[in-house]
Amino acid sequence: MKRSISYSVPIPAIPSNDQPVYAHHQWIRTWIESILERPLPTTNLFLSLRDGVFLCRLVNQLKPNSIVHIHQGKSRAAKEENIRRFLEAGPRVSHSTTNLGLILFLLLYII
């Protein structure tokens, strides 16, 4: 029997477009860290997310078992596979208090 997990997703206030890019990076970082309940490994958002591991963990936290296998390798193929799985899982993740489409857009636009 599968357990259903309900997860309350906190969403910080979105910075306005006239704020610097750093404010958007901080907003994304704060949101991701609040969902994962742990800090990202570096202060540089791009470096923290570029291998796709934390992006896949984010999706799995929002909807458990959405991504069954996350590649931990440092090869380009492993990173690309994680990013591909993250992008494919995005539309399947639905949550009443989260607009994952907005998050995906911001991640792709800003990074």
TrEMBL record:
Residues 22-111 form the Calponin-homology (CH) domain. PROSITE patterns: CH (PS50021). GO terms for biological process: actin filament organization. One of its GO terms (cellular component) is actin cytoskeleton. It comes from Hesseltinella vesiculosa. It holds the Pfam family CH. Gene3D superfamilies: Calponin-like domain (1.10.418.10). One of its GO terms (molecular function) is actin filament binding. It comes from the Eukaryota. This is Calponin-homology (CH) domain-containing protein.
